[in-house]
Design brief:
With 260 residues, the chain is α/β, with parallel strands linked by helices. The protein contains ten helices and seven strands. Helix content is 52%, strand content 15%. The strands form two sheets. A five-stranded mixed sheet has the order 5-4-3-7-6. A two-stranded parallel ribbon has the order 1-2.
Length: 260
Amino acid sequence: MTLAEAIEAYLASASPKVTPYEHQELHRFSRTVGNDRNIESLAPPDVAAYAEGVVKAGGDIHGRLSPVKVFLAAAKKKGYSTHSLATHVKIPRATVKAVVAAARAREEIQMTEEGIANLREELISLKEGREEKIEAIRLAAMDKDFRENAPLDAARETHSYAESRIKELEETLRRAVVIDHTASRERGVGVGSRVTLYDLQNERSVEYTLVDSSEADPAGGKISVVSPVGAAVLGAVVGDEVAVRAPKGERKYRVTAVEA
C-alpha cells in the first residue's frame, strides 16, 4: 500500500471528522515524503525529518503536525504499517526557538530580482541619509533642556529606526538569492509563482504572486509565503483544493493556474 493510498483509506474511514485543513496537511505530508512510496518503507528518521522541517518553517506548527501524528497512529492501529511512527512527530519544547533562529540565520531567502533591487535601493538611500539624521540630533541637542526636548527625542528615534532597518536589510541581502524558476515548477507553487485561485464559496477567481515576507505587498497582489493563503498553496499544483483559516471561518480554494 502506498502512502497516498493509506491516506485516502484513512480519510474515507475518518470522514467527516477530518476537516479540509487537515486533508490539506495530510496531502502536503504525502507529497513531501512521496505519494507513491510504500507506507511500510517509512522509517522514524523520515517522519522526524518532516516534523523538523515544519518546525523550522514556523507558522501553524501544531495545526500542520497534529493531523500527521493522528494519521500515523491510525495507520499502525489499522494495520497499514507495522511501525509506530506517530511518536516521532514531536516538537522539542525548550529548544524550538533556538533551532528555528539558528536555521533561519543559515537559510537562503528566495526573492525576485525586482525585490532584491528594491531592497538595495532602500539600503543605499538609508545610508546616504545617515549624516542628515546625525546632524538633526546635533541641532536638537543644542537646546540644553533635555527633560522636555521633543525634537531631540524624535531625531534620536528616527536615527535608531534607520540603523535597525539598515542592519535588517544587510542581513536579508546577505541571504538573498534570485528564485530558481526551474526548481519552482518542479515543486508546484513556490516563491515567485503567480497563482490563480478559484474561491469555491463566492465563485470568483483571484490572482496572487507568492513572495518572501520582505517583498509582501497585498495591495499589489504580492502575498508572503507565510501568510494564511500563501502557506496553504505552497507546494500545490493545478487542480489541488486548499483550505485557508480566516477570522470569519475557513475558506476553500481550487488552484486553477500556476505560472513560474
